[in-house]
Amino acid sequence: MRVSKPLKINAVSYTIALCAAFTAGAIPAGLVFGVDPYEVFRSTERTTKIQDIAEKAHYPLWKLAKYEVGKFDTFILGDSRARSLRDKYWHELGMVDTLNMAYGGGTVPEIYSTFQVIKDDPKIKNLVVGIQLRSFDEDHKDDMNRVPEAEYIVQNKIEYLKNWSIFKTAWKMMTVEEKETFENFDAFAKSFSIAAKADEYKDRMDFDPRDPKVDEGCFDCGLQSELNRLTVSERYQILKRPPAFRKDVNTPIKASYTIENWSNVSHLYATSNEIKPLPKKMANQVTKNAKSDWVGFEFSQRYWSYLVEISEWAKENDKNLVFVVPPTIEDMQRTISIYGMEQTSHEFRMQLAELGTVVDFDYSNDLTKQIDNFSDAYHFKSSIAKKMVGEITAFLSVDPKVRKLAVKRSDIIKCTTQNDTKSTTEIINDVSLTNLNNCRIWRVL
Length: 445
What we know:
Layout: H1 11-35, H2 48-57, H3 59-64, E1 74-77, H4 80-83, H5 87-91, E2 98-100, H6 108-118, E3 126-130, H7 147-155, H8 157-162, H9 164-177, H10 179-204, H11 232-239, H12 280-294, H13 301-316, E4 320-325, H14 330-338, H15 342-355, E5 357-360, H16 366-369, H17 382-392, H18 400-408, E6 424-428, E7 431-436, E8 439-444
Parallel strand pairs: 1-2, 1-3, 3-4, 4-5
Antiparallel strand pairs: 5-8, 6-7, 7-8
Helix pairs in contact: 1-9, 2-9, 6-13, 9-10, 12-14, 17-18
């Protein structure tokens, strides 16, 4: 029987292979360390355009990397609408110790996980939570929670350096930041390719397929949504079709609460009868997204328990808790009624008021009727965000300098009677509802 000889490993070859493997692994880590997209190792002055690449790739990682214990006294939590209440808007009013930790696409589990990260911070005084009913369905974004991963990466620098997704983000940021260098290199490389292929293309084609002007503007030609081409009346005929499932509106959010007489409060959710045409993007959101929001909606008691825990923490530790219900366009509010969710929406606000002060912008008013105040059906523009921040500060700070600067932003929105605004107050069970300029305040008596 023939016996094979043992394989002899050349020491030099082994060393070269080992060095090559080490280098291949070290290059991505070196790039991540050099670019440091989430500024874990050092702060870097970059344009907003460059920073947005990292933030949008992993919102919680971007925000948690900025958090330092004992540095901030006010925190903003929530989704993209709460994220719109930018740090700089608060800082401009003198609230320089404010950190916005709201995430694009944020969920209630992410709000709760972020709260767990910051709750033991000795400096914390104020917690502002952007919240809305549609987020309380566990099927909403599939119960997503990106915070634990982000927290782990921030705490483990080795994981940060070797994470493939972070490497891709670092590479993308570098190509944008060093765009001119990459373009010069690309032009240099293409000069050889063009020279080599010139004869081949010259005889076979009437145009150069590398020309970026070819078919310019024809991406997705003819693929416009049928819904976007519907008239306004046709849009709402679709919405009025009975949904396959509706939440039992007689079932309260908490068993201890029932609506004694809906007719006494239904006027709070009335919308105008005039239905105006919408831009295509907004029309598509009203027809498709609203159906996704409300058909089959099931209120999560687990999600609600997260807010109850946050509220109990605030009361026990003498912290200021403010909930903000962000505005949506009136057409989106109308779908709440169409899908039979009005009473649930009211119950939600009533119960939320028992947990903390509720600053509510999401009802039919001069702000939400004007679609020019919004970039889409859900998201308000930065000019509105600044005004909202100015009004919310009244519930967070008694500093006269802060209030003076905040009052200067008041015009379309006024959330306090301190601004000499005419107000009306209704008492609903044990909750007071104060109506102000495009803003409602819900509080427990």
